[in-house]
Each structure stands twice: as C-alpha cells, then as structure tokens.
Specification:
Shape: globular
CATH class of the largest domain: Alpha Beta
CATH architecture of the largest domain: 2-Layer Sandwich
Helix content: 25-40%
Number of domains: 4
CATH superfamily of the largest domain: ATP-grasp fold, B domain
Largest sheet: 8 strands, antiparallel
Strand order of the largest sheet: 13-12-9-10-11-14-18-16
Number of helices: 13
Number of strands: 19
Mean pLDDT: 93
Structural class: alpha+beta
Strand content: 25-35%
Low-confidence stretches: none
Length: 400
C-alpha cells in the first residue's frame, strides 16, 4: 500500500473514531470533514481537519477538490452519505454513486424502489397534509408508523395505535423533517433484527444477520447488537435473499450496507437500508464475527486497494460477539463519577465512556443520551451476555 494515500473521513464524532484510527494504522493520511464546533473526538485523532458541512454535497465536493484525495469514506451515520456519493462520482473515486445515496437518504424513494423491485416491505403512502393522512388511514389498518423520510436512526418516527395518535405523530414528524411530506406505513409487529453486508465491484461479499437489543421510547431504539442470531435456516435464507435483492434494487455498489429487517408470520420484510456500515459497534461485531478488521476493508476500498485481500484472510469459523450501549433508563442529573473497576482481557474488548464528570445525563430517549459502550466476544451469545452483566456490575455511576 502507498503510505502517502489520503482519505477524507466525513464526520468526526465517536462513530468515526474506529475508522480514523484504522486508517492511520494503515499508514493513510487522514483528513476529517466536520463543522467548526463541538470539538468532536475525531479532530484530535486525525492528521488534518477540513471544516465543511457534510450534509451539503456541494460544500463537500468543493472542499474535496482541493485536498488531493485518494478516497472518501464515512461510517455509522447517514449525514454524509449523499455528499460522499456525489464527490466519489465527480472525482472518480471508489464509492457508491450519488443516485444510490439519494435513494438511501429518502425513505419514500427507497421504499418505492423496493416495492417496484418486488422486495417485501411494509405498505406505505406519502402524506403531505392531514387530509392525505386521513385518506391513507382508510387503506391501512391501525396501528401505523409515521416516518420523516430524511432522518436517521429513530428520529422522526412515531407509532400510532389510534387515529388521534396518527395525527399527532404526523404533526411531530413534519416538525422534525426538512421535507414537505412524510410517509405513513403499516405497522408490522414482529421480531426485528439487522444485517451488515459489503458490496465491492458488483459482488456482495457477505450478508451477516445480527440480533438487535432495543429499548422502547417513542419507538424501539437499538441499544445493542449481537452475533450470531438464533433463528431457522429458512429465516436466514429469506434474509439473505431480501438483502441481496434490496442492494440490487437501490443499485448499491462499492460500499458497506446496513439493513433493518423484521419477521412476521414466518416472512422477512425489509424495513430500510443504507450504503454505510451500521452504528453502535456494528463494525466491531463484523470484525469479531469474521476475525478481521472490518474498518480495514472500508478504508482499502475507498483508497483504491482491493478489500477482498483482507476478506480472504477471515477465520474459517465465526465467533460470537455482543455490544451494548450504556444509558440511564429513568434517572437524570449531572454526572458525579463514572469508573470501570473490572479488568480487561482478550474477550473484554472495550469499555468506553462518552460522558465525563460534570456532563448532563438524561433519561434515555435517543442514541445521543448514551453514556458509553461495552464490547465483548466469546464462544456463545450466553457467554457474552454473562460477561456484559459482570462488566455492568463493575461500573460505578454516580449522579448529582
């Protein structure tokens, strides 16, 4: 590998830390693109900083032209995906195309593309007024989900069990979104799980289903992930078929892929997917499962090297892993003390705190309220779960 290759990482928050560290370990010069505020952790880790609005494709492209780049990458957030697509396409760099990125970023366009390709997904309608919502509710049985189409994670999503709640959810979603519409879709109640995938030069290298631990706030919010999942071979087969079909429907290529799925009455449905690796320790779980550094694959592809050379070195047998976010379910206050008093070994991979004494701790409502994260590996899920519980017992947390 050419040690002088330059990589622009879109974003400098905690989700990009692993990507930045890995790129530097690979001898790649890292440039983080971020706004000039909040002092995110990626700034101090990177070789260079270029201030930009990663949600603005024109701004990112303009800045990227002057950086002498070999590649652009992002992970764990959707904010820069469209900008990445445009810049990669315009600068002839390896990465997903802008049109595919746009499909990922707009839930309406995404679901339309899935429906047109025959991929199983929830029935939905576009609504831009309460009158349109009323008509839609004549064609979808309650409960329903109201979704802003341009937000990531669990933001702008509201479950409604009554018509009144549907109207309230619509008003809330329209306040959340920057668009003039949202969608209302049937609420498929079932077992939710996820999958990570990777597409290089038109080839899907893997589909890795993973379990999701969720916390119910205004909707179910992922607070942990694990591999492997326990389900039938039929469900695994359906999931693989759905993921591969959805990747083709959105024309995703040269990117990591994050997918949300759900099973109802033995049938797998796609909730949504996007052309970047998932958040909340999912890159680390891919690494644990296959015995590779998944960030290396993302970096290698972005800078023009062949990620299959890393993939081909994966372990013959997969491993179990569990990652969990640390948060306060009900208590709020100012953090007085936080400390892990346990030990680290080859199976306790990470105990990280995002908050420090003096920071505000809020009862959990979204991922921004997370206090920290824990990652372990083991022979089985049950073994990993026991390790997590021990770690939680060894954490001292005091609030004012």
């Amino acid at each position: 590998m050419d040690k002088n290759k330059r990589l622009l990482v879109l974003g400098a928050g905690r989700g990009q830390v692993g990507l930045i560290k890995t790129a530097k370990d690979m001898g790649v010069v890292t440039v983080v693109g971020t706004m000039p505020n909040n002092n995110p952790p990626g700034i101090s880790l990177s070789d260079e900083v270029c201030y930009m609005d990663i949600s603005n494709p024109d701004d990112v492209l303009s800045k990227a032209k002057g950086l002498n780049l070999n590649g652009i990458a992002t992970c764990c957030l959707d904010t820069g995906v469209t900008s990445l697509g445009r810049s990669c396409e315009q600068l002839d760099l390896i990465g997903l195309k802008e049109n595919a990125a746009v499909l990922c970023q707009d839930k309406l366009k995404m679901k339309t593309a899935l429906m047109e390709s025959g991929i199983s997904t929830a029935k939905f309608f576009k609504v831009s007024s309460e009158e349109e919502l009323s008509k839609s509710l004549e064609n979808i049985m309650l409960p329903v989900i109201i979704k802003a189409t341009d937000l990531q994670g669990s933001k702008g999503i509201y479950i409604a069990h009554t018509k009144q709640e549907a109207y309230e959810g619509y008003r809330s979603a329209m306040l959340d979104t920057k668009r003039e519409y949202c969608i209302v879709e049937e609420f498929i109640e079932g077992w939710e799980f996820g999958a990570q995938s990777f597409v290089y030069d038109g080839e899907v290298l893997f589909v890795m289903p993973h379990g999701d631990d969720t916390f119910m706030s205004h909707t179910a919010i992922p607070v942990g992930h694990f591999v492997p999942i326990k389900c039938s071979e039929d469900i695994l087969s359906q999931a693989e078929e759905c993921v591969r079909g959805a990747i083709k429907a959105l024309d995703l290529n040269n990117c990591a892929v994050n997918v949300d799925l759900i099973v109802k009455d033995g049938k797998v449905y796609i909730i949504e997917l996007t052309g970047r690796v998932g958040a909340n320790c999912l890159p680390e779980l891919v690494s644990i499962n296959f015995g590779i550094n998944y960030y290396q694959m993302i970096v290698a592809m972005a800078i023009g090297d062949n990620p299959k050379e890393i993939w081909e070195k994966r372990d013959k047998e997969t491993s179990a892993g569990l990652a969990k976010m640390l948060f306060s379910e009900k208590d709020t206050g100012i953090l007085k003390k936080i400390e892990y008093t346990g030990s680290f070994d080859e199976e306790v991979l990470e105990v990280t705190f995002f908050k420090k004494p003096g920071d505000e701790i809020r009862a959990f409502n979204n991922s921004n309220d997370c206090i920290g994260q824990v990652i372990v590996r083991g022979n089985t899920y049950e073994e990993c779960e026991m390790k997590i519980k021990q770690i939680e017992n060894d954490i001292i947390l005091q609030l004012w």
